[in-house]
Amino acid sequence: MTLNRRHFGHMMAASVLLPGTLLPGTLLPSAATAQAAAPTGKLVLYTSQPDRDAQQTITGFRKVNPGVEVEVFRSGTTEVMAKLAAEFSAGQPRPDVLLIADAASMEQLKADNRLEIYATKSIEGIVPSAFDRDMTYFGTKMISTGIIYNKAAKAIPVSWADLAKPEYKGQISMASPLYSGAAAIKLGAVTARPDLGWTYIEALRRNEASAVRGNGAVLRAVATGEKAYGIIVDFMAFNAKAQGSPVEFVFPKEGLTVVTEPVAILKTASNKTAARAFVDFLLSDEGQKLSLSQGYIPTRASVGSPSWMPVGTQINIMPVDIKTVVATTEADKKRFADMFGQ
Amino acid sequence: MTLSERGLRLGQDQIVLILLVVLVALLSMSPLLRLLLESVAPGGIVSTQAFTRVWNNPTAWIALRNSLETSLGATLLAVVFGTIVALVVTLTDLRARNAFVFVFVMPLIIAPQVMALAWLQISGPASPLLNALGLAPPLGARNPLYSREGIILLLAIEYAPLVFLTLRAGLRALPRELIEAGLSSGASKITVVRTIIMPLMTPSIVAGMALVFVSCLGNFGVAAFLGIPGNYLTLPTLIYQRLSGLGPGVLSEVAVLSTVIGSIAIIGIIVQDVMLRRRDYRVTTTSLAARPFALGHWRLPVEILLWSITLFVVVMPVIGLLATALVPAYGVPLSAKTATTANFAYVITEHAASGRALVNSFFLSLAASIIVVLISLVLAYFLVWRRSRLLRFLNLVAELPYALPGVVLSIACILLFLKPLPVLGISLYNTVWIILIAYLARFLVLGLRPVVSGYHQLDRAIEEAAQVAGAGFLYRLVTVIMPVMAPVAAAGAILVFLTAFNELTLSALLWSSGAETLGVVVFSFEQGGESTAAAAMSIVTIVVTVGLALSTLLFHHKLPEGVLPWRD
Prior knowledge:
The complex is a heterodimer of chains A (about 350) and B (about 575). Chain A is built from 13 helices and 12 strands. Chain A is an alpha/beta fold. At the A-B interface, helix 4, strand 2, helix 5, strand 7 and helix 9 of A face helix 6, helix 12, helix 18 and helix 23 of B.
């Protein structure tokens, strides 16, 4: 599912109309039966959400489902996935639900036949590009990637292409696709475009862009003036700005890529009722409002847009075909690693 | 002595030996064997695919070369630095040496990740120190720390205290007579150091060297923060890269890469063994410490030099941390107007997990250090004085869990402990006990190396005297050997405690709700973009650790001589 160069506002309007036409009717009944009994017992959640967000998510969920005890393991995306991989290998995966940063990891799990299909009605009103058509994982927010710059920077970029200009040489920091799932998705999206493509990545390399481990490292580099510009996820830039860091964020005019922090139920989940309730909560108005209050763009358009987003901001979403990205990601990463000497 | 008594005595140390072999094998070997199984038979199907993939991957070879370069370089630097400082501090009449020891071991208290960030902060354009001096680099200036040399420098600073503490404990056992004999036969102090002290201290220095080498080999924090932006890949960063790539077969590839690290570590230990086998280092310790060398009119210059180097390498990054902890967000210049205690208030009072983490980490580290030292005291006895082949093998194996990156060891622990223990039917997974077991496996070598060096330097005659007098094995161990070994044992315990206290990579995968460690808290702050809170938490950790170390001074008179490195 792609949204080709469509304005954000339009996309939101369009999404409201879509659900009825999207859902395969045959999948619906199981959703109805699932909602019959109030969930109880223990729910095991593995997540890479920031600590504060994870706590709020659990508190919010338990307000609606007081009968459920939530046991959480929170760590970095790589750590969560490594733990999960070890648990799969030992034959006893523990979590009921996963809430992790990007759809690429979910696609991988789906390909390994680890994810449970849940044809929930809650996707009504959710941006169609944010959830899996086969109903295995569902985006809970939209985290876009744009350009951050230090206020002391001389030039102010308006597009991705600007970063290839000579005056930006040696001044750019970005998350390495070798370490960050979001960056890998972005690499796939950018290289698939005729106007950017691998020529653009090569231009970044010529401009001595430095590939760091993750978004936190990009923020640190730009906020402390180690680099003047960085490629980073929106909320981190805006949160830092709100706290007083000397940074600004721009939405490049070619468009942004988004990751959706999807939630999914494992096939091996022991408490599927509670797991379904958790998915439904995150997609509900309430769950989406929580995302909004945490500074994210919700996937339910009707909920609104975060306060940091200037009124009337027009955002282009770059088309990302997750399946293609996953299929080519190993080759893309290798090419990137060869180019950047990593 | 009757025959039956003799049989009983033999039985006592044999039982201890068997128990010990089983324990160490379980601790050190089982996670590694499980991992090895993953590399040759992922999912139970034998396959050499992972091996061929790694072998044919040029990146793996580059990472191997880089790992060797940084580990060897940093080891050399740390040994030179740590040895010189330990000699000067322990042998001369330097003033305020207790305070100095305190400051010098500080890098051990700060997690390598946090340390690397602090260095970048203090040397970058936003450095409060450089800005105050008007020396701050311009926006976007390339930081020279992002390089092989930068990694070597920071690793050496981080691990020089390992050499320092091991050697200082060894120097405590230096016989006064030998030095006085040398001096009175007309040898200069330098000659005495070169020809008497240094040769006798070879076991301590080699032990410290081995520890630094394996520490560097498995270090992820410094390599990640300085190496990834500098396009300088090491084996631990490559492993992490593979893990974040996911996909099928990742675990087996990671296991293969870990085998490479493990093999290098084993080669390192064999080299260490060879270095020690050439000579006899045993001395009989007198209860009197050697009289310090008078530095004379050199005292003040030496003091100034030592303090300024130490302040530079140790206090600078702590200032960097403090500067970060005192501002509301990254990049806000520190001034009277912007300074805030909000980060400290947040981590101390608001953030419930922080307090829990302090308590958890304290007890986990304390338990780990006590258990490790007890195991080490007995294991080293058999290792050095009984030299059985089986034990020498265990000695090699004990090194491995420490040489591997923490994330790999935790994966191994998950593979091993996910299902309830066989026979007992108890599940350790998702409890605090799995972290303790991982700590014991990982940090055993930190306690073992100083104690082994201690046995190498001890003449067995005293134990044999006790044996002739009819003392049983355990009785001899407790009444004869332990008191003599107290300084090295304490050095080992301190190494284990400090390293476990700020450990981050193991618990990042193994923690569970309510069982947070300090590392988990710092890591989640850093991950959530709350770097200022992470800095504040690190400062709190430093203060707590220094407080704990200071509190040991309250009962130092009850401890054996030379146990506290920061107390003469």
